[in-house]
Amino acid sequence: MAAENTMVIAGAGIAGVHAAESLRAEGYQGRVVLMDRDRQMPYDRPPLSKEWLTDDTDEASMLLRDPEIYGKLDIELKLGVEVNDIDPVRKTITAKDGSSYDWEKLLLATGSKLRTLSIAGDDLQGIFYLRRMADAVAMKQHMQHVNEVVIIGAGFIGAELASSLRKLGIDVTIVERSSYPMEAVVGRDISASLLNLHDRHGVNVILNDSVVQFNGESTVEEAITAEGRRLPCQAVMIGVGATPNTVVSHPQLEAEGGYAVNEFGETSIPDIYAAGDCTLWPYRGTPIRVEHWDHAVNHARTVAQNMLQPRSTPYTYTPYFWSDQHGSRFQYFGHAKQWSKTVLRGSLESHAFTNFYLDDQNRVQAAFIANQPKNALPVRRMIKQQKVIDPEALADETIALKKVPQKSVMNNT
Prior knowledge:
Layout (H helix, E strand, L loop, with lengths): L5 E5 L3 H12 L5 E6 L30 H6 L2 E5 L3 E5 L4 E4 L4 E3 L2 E4 L3 E3 L12 E3 L3 H10 L5 E5 L3 H12 L3 E5 L7 H4 L1 H13 L3 E3 L4 E5 L6 E4 L4 E3 L2 E4 L3 E3 L14 E2 L11 E3 L4 E5 L2 E3 L4 H16 L11 E6 L2 E7 L6 E7 L4 E7 L5 E7 L5 H10 L2 E2 L1 H5 L10 E2 L6
Parallel strand pairs: 1-2, 1-7, 2-3, 7-19, 9-16, 10-11, 10-16, 11-12, 18-20
Antiparallel strand pairs: 4-5, 5-6, 8-17, 13-14, 14-15, 20-21, 22-23, 23-26, 24-25, 25-26, 27-28
C-alpha cells in the first residue's frame, strides 16, 4: 500500500495502542503500522507496582488488548523493532534491523524512560528498576525468598511498591533524600499525611538521606546510606522518576523536555505528531508533561483524530492521576506548580479529605482527593470552569460541593 495511505505509530504502549484503535474507530481505511522495541504483546504498566506483584492478576490479564484484536482491526503489530532514524522529507522511518516503513503521518508514542542511579555495588542481583514486564517478572520471581526490601524514592511508584510489599508481609524501608516527598506537587501537609499512612502500615521511611553503596556476595544483602545507616535487605527497588523517551530524533524535531506539541498534537515537523508521556503539551498556555494513564489514553485519541482531520480537535484535557496505597485511593486533578492558598475539606486524621489549591483570585487550580471519590466530578468541573470560589464555603462539608457559591472573574472585578 502506498505511503499516502499509511499511518505509522512508534511505540505500542497505552498511547500507541489507543491511537491505533482510534484511527480505525474514526473510519481510517489505510494501513496502520504499530511498532515497539519490546518483544512482548502490548501490556498495561500501572498494575506492575500493584496487582501483579501481589498475585492479584496474571500476565495474560495485563495485556492491553486480546492479541486477536490487532488482526481484527487490521493493525500491523511490529514487535522487537527499535527505531533508528526518521526522514521527514522522504517520509520514512528506519529500524536498527534495517527494516524501513513509509508513512503519510507519523505518531511518536514512545513513552518515558526511567531515571537511573550509579551506586557502588549496583551490579548485584536483586536490584530492580520497574518499567517493563520483564522487570516485573524478574522481580516477582526474586521476591519469593525475600524478607526485607529497600526502596529508593518515595514518589508514587515507590509508595505503591511499599504498599504492595507490605500486603505480602515483607519488611519495607524507603529511603528518600527530601524532607517531604512530592511536596512540590501536593504540598507539605499532604506529604506529611502520606508519610503518616505508611508509618501506620509498618513502612520504615528514612528521610533526608540517600543510598550510596550496596553490599553482598552475588546478591544484594545490605544498603549503606550517606548518613551511615546499614539497611539489611535481600532486594532493592529503585523508583526515582522518569524522563521523556525522545529516542526518535531529528535536528528539526523540537524535543527538549519532551516532544513539543501544540494543542492538536503536531510537532515541529509537518505530519509528525506525538502523544502521551513523551510529550510537552500546552495546558492553559503553559507547556507541561504528564506521565499518567488517563492522559496517555485521552491525548492519543485526540491526536489520532487530528491526524485524520488536521487541527479539528484541540486537546483540552484536565490532568488527572490516581494512586492506590494501603487500601486508600488518592486522586489528583489539575496542575499547579504554585498556589496562593490551600483549602482543606475534611480532615487529614480521618484520611478522607479533599485539598484544594487556589490561585490569587480564589480559582481552583488543582485538588488532591483522599478516599472521597464522589468529589471527583464537581472538582473536575470547578477546575474546568475557573470561576471564583468562596474558600469558607469550599471548606464547609455541610455545603455540597456542587452548591458552593461561584462567580466569574469578570463579576469579581
